[in-house]
Amino acid sequence: MLKSFIGLSLTAIALISILGNVNQVSILGNVNQEKESFTLLGIKNQINRIQMKKNVPSIVTKGFEEFCSKHTRNPVEVWAERSTMINETTGTVMDAMFKNILGKCIDYSIIGSVPITEKTQIVYVESEHINSPFFWQITVHRSHRGEVISGFNSHTNIGELLTPSLVMKR
């Protein structure tokens, strides 16, 4: 019974996410956009709104400034200096990809950031290269050592990193 309820709840939440701005999901419950809540099978829940923000930790921008403006190092090499989670080998592998496939970085744009906790946020960035755009999802954590990159994902397809619901909230 509990498994069935959980499965139905997850399906309903997925449906609500897909339907976006609808005010009614009649079979499963009601969505009230004004009050930021929904009722699912008689249980009222708050909608957790994700806000994209433009405030970005300096460690992220420093990496992209060196990469796209100064053309001295790729951002992974800059981040590896202050992170125990990223090593220099990753930067070397990415250098080869930039050199042989994407080409030189021309510019970068901050898409936005999503706060996860008081100390952690995910930053989304597009770096523009001669041959293709490249998208980044960077996890930044404020620790006792200052800002550190605890991990990142990157891809040429933004859909691999950023959900459509986050793109629409920009």
Mean pLDDT: 73
Q: Examine the secondary-structure arrangement and name the CATH architecture of the largest domain.
A: Roll
Q: In CATH terms, what is the fold-level topology of the largest domain?
A: Nuclear Transport Factor 2, Chain: A
Strand-and-helix sequence, N→C? Answer: HEEEEHHHEEEEH
Give the distance, in angstroms, between the N- and C-terminal Cα atoms. Answer: 39 Å
Give the structural class: alpha+beta
Describe this structure in words.
It contains five helices and eight strands, in the order αββββαααββββα. By secondary structure, the chain is an alpha+beta fold. The chain has two domains: 45 residues, no CATH class; 111 residues, Nuclear Transport Factor 2, Chain: A (Roll). A hairpin with a 2-residue loop joins strand 7 and strand 8. The relative contact order is 0.13. The N terminus is likely disordered.
Tell me briefly what this model is.
The chain is 34% helix and 33% strand.
Question: What are the defining features of this structure?
Answer:
4-stranded antiparallel beta sheet; 2 domains; single chain; Nuclear Transport Factor 2, Chain: A; 170 residues; 33% strand; alpha+beta; disordered N terminus
